[in-house]
Amino acid sequence: MKMSPMIESLVLHFGEMGSRWGFNRTVGQMLALIVLSESPLNADQMREALNVSRGNVSMGLKELVSWRLILLRHIPGDRKEYYCAAGSIWDMANTVFEERRKREIDPTLSLLRNNIMDDTSKEAPELFAQQRVSEIHDLLETITQWSSELQRLSPEKLNTLMRLGVGVSKVLDISDKFKRTKTD
């Protein structure tokens, strides 16, 4: 499978970004290749396009399936397994966010909850640490609740909300300035 220069550039970039998103370079490249492909791809096509081993492609496909970012498709009359993106770009962004929350935020919240409930020590360093742990927990809980609400929005409403974000920020800045001048 031959990639155009534009697609090749994007695939390479996705590979570099993969480690920042929570998976390795090859998996990032495979995701880009699948997302940018109009029709489903099989493992041989991906191996050829990316110049990687069958084993690497197989492991990458398993990881992308576990992240729920790709779907297995069968083409009538063809015994090979084909893969396509699991929904729209918005759907995949939500899925990545949800998977990262499960893998990163939820275990941290569990650890913080356990430490908050274990308030046996009354020494000053422990009390200060307990207060900090409680603050971190409350922040992560708020972010988690807020993000859950955002994930329930349709892509259109979410897009509108993001566009409003700049305006809301400006209104809040004006409100702060007004409050300061009132109290001065």
From TrEMBL:
What keywords does the record list, in alphabetical order? DNA-binding, Transcription, Transcription regulation
UniProt name for this protein: HTH-type transcriptional regulator
Q: Does the keyword Ribonucleoprotein apply?
A: no
> In what residue span(s) does the HTH marR-type domain sit?
22-80
- Return the similarity comment: Belongs to the GbsR family.
Question: What Pfam families does UniProt report for this protein, alphabetically?
Answer: MarR_2
GO MF annotation: an example: DNA-binding transcription factor activity
- Which organism is the protein's source? Corallincola holothuriorum
